[in-house]
Amino acid sequence: MSDPTIQTFCCHHTGSKEDLAIRIMDEFNTESYNIVCLVSSTIGIIGSIYQIFPCKISSHSDGFGNKTNSRARNIIIWLAVADLMASLGVLVRSSLWLRYKSIIPLPDDEISVLFCSITSAWTQYFYTATWFWTLFYAIDTLRTIKGRDSHPTLYHSIAWGVPAATTGIGLSILYIPNATCHNLKTVTSAFLRILPNYCATYVPIAMVMIVNPVLYILAGKEVEMTVALPLAQFTSKERRVVDTLKLKFFLINVVFYVCWLPNLVNGVMIWTMWFNMPVKIIISVWYIMALMNPMQALLNALVYRRWNTNGKKYRPTFSSIHKDLNLPDELSPLLGSEPPRMQLSPLPPGINNYATM
């Protein structure tokens, strides 16, 4: 999981019962927590691998000399790669914590502090990258429907560069120079030492939660207009295409909220109840985070996949003679297979090329 509160456990502690981390540990079953992390991260790794390799195998030409859906699939692959690396970080950290039975390093245990901080930075970095790839998928969806070009170089620069900056700055302030973030004397020092890492974590999550639904609403309206305008009509067939796209957009947003809303709830509770912290509730939220954060990879594999009907996966083929992209005997690649009588109205390339996602 990616959580600034757990990352503070990498710091040296005093061993005093007045130490908040020690009070939490007294009520925290670290073994069961690490088992949950181990199971969920393993499932996340499987989900990531499922997304990465079939995408490369199933890529094919569309008749125009381009790879069908290559822009969407490339973003999905890089999102899965980031998920895979983050899940590996969670797997390694929880495995070693299970082995050595200690989450909080002993007061003079420099090796444990170093290991904890490195694995925390690794996990934080790659999960932050997944948030940006999720954002860029939504941006590129809208751009594709509008018939605009993709900007993969810009996407890569931001998706890998910004997490490096936010993770490096947030954790450096937290750990440097001596990893003593528990025995802070004043509220001001706590704000200056701990809050930057919380902002580096929660601001990108909140940004995606706010921006992505707006982008998908705009994309849905754009699809609705583009499908209806060519024939100046909006029949049940056009409605089915639009409704299915909107459903897919909705499920993508739901998955992100389900996986990352507990983290925001945890952050709000920590900072609004700092002096009267409900420890049992906080621990319960940690279990939810430990389960849902790595599960993002598996859930993404479900919502970003090609949509199937009657157990058959539909793969569109576009011929150069179908310049208007009328699809006789075939249907929107998003919908799967249906009887030939359900012909679609002509669809613009932007929608067809992105529909399988």
Task: Provide tags for this entry.
2 strands; elongated; 68% helix; Rhopdopsin 7-helix transmembrane proteins; 10 helices; 357 residues; mainly alpha
Question: How would you explain this protein's 3D organization?
Answer:
- The chain crosses the membrane at residues 33-53, 74-92, 112-133, 154-175, 195-219, 249-275, 281-304.
- With 357 residues, the chain is mainly α.
- It has a single domain (4-55, 65-315), classed as Rhodopsin 7-helix transmembrane proteins (Rhopdopsin 7-helix transmembrane proteins, Up-down Bundle), CATH 1.20.1070.
- 68% of the residues lie in helices and 1% in strands.
- The chain is built from 10 helices and 2 strands.
- The chain has helices at 4-8, 20-26, 30-58, 70-100, 110-145, 152-175, 187-228, 236-272, 279-303, 349-355, and strands at residues 308-309, 312-313.
- The protein has a two-stranded antiparallel sheet with strand order 1-2.
- Helix 4 runs antiparallel to helix 9 and helix 5 packs parallel to helix 7 (187-228).
- The radius of gyration is 23 Å and the shape is elongated.
- 41% of the residues are buried.
> Whole-number average pLDDT?
77
Kindly provide the name of the CATH class.
Answer: Mainly Alpha
Strand content is under 5%
Our Rg estimate from Cα atoms comes to: 23 Å
CATH fold label: Rhopdopsin 7-helix transmembrane proteins
Spatial sequence of strands, sheet with the most strands = 1-2
SS element count, helices:
10
Architecture (CATH level 2) name: Up-down Bundle
Structural class: mainly alpha
Q: Largest sheet, if any?
A: 2 strands, antiparallel
Q: Report the end-to-end length measured between terminal Cα atoms.
A: 27 Å
The percentage helix is: 55-70%
- Taking pLDDT < 50 over at least 5 consecutive residues as the criterion, the unreliable ranges are 55-68, 308-357
The count of domains is: 1
**Looking at this structure, what is the CATH superfamily?**
Rhodopsin 7-helix transmembrane proteins
